Amino acid sequence: MKVVLDSNVYVSAFGFDAGPERILDLGVATNFKIYSSLYIIEEVKRVLHEKLGMSERFATLAGKRIERYSNVVPIRGVPAGPIPTDPNDGPIIKTCLASRADFLVTGDKELFAVALRGTEIVSPSQFLRHLRTQGIA
I need a labelling partner for 13 at 20 to 30 A (CA). Which of 4, 28, 60, 99 fits? Predict the structure, then answer.
């Protein structure tokens, strides 16, 4: 199972919500693979530091953790795919396409409206429920 975590899921995991943190832990400990892109990593670092006031060191370490525990895929040259309402979500869609993700886990309600063939778009709580039905969580 291939999973892309949106940047907002990582931000929540790094100190705000136990559900997204559990997804990261399960991704490391079990057989599903987490995919990311440099865009997602940089977005997480930017939000943690600039918007939430975390130290630059904390944001950098968070980015390194994502790199360590996910498969980072290049998104340059990937066809655009479905056009999301928010242009900043385009690279998230490209990450899903580049990794051939089975799931996109996001807290962004606008992304739920995107029809992404082959990828189910779910919230962190929906994904944790799915993992429980698979005997993973």
Answer: 99
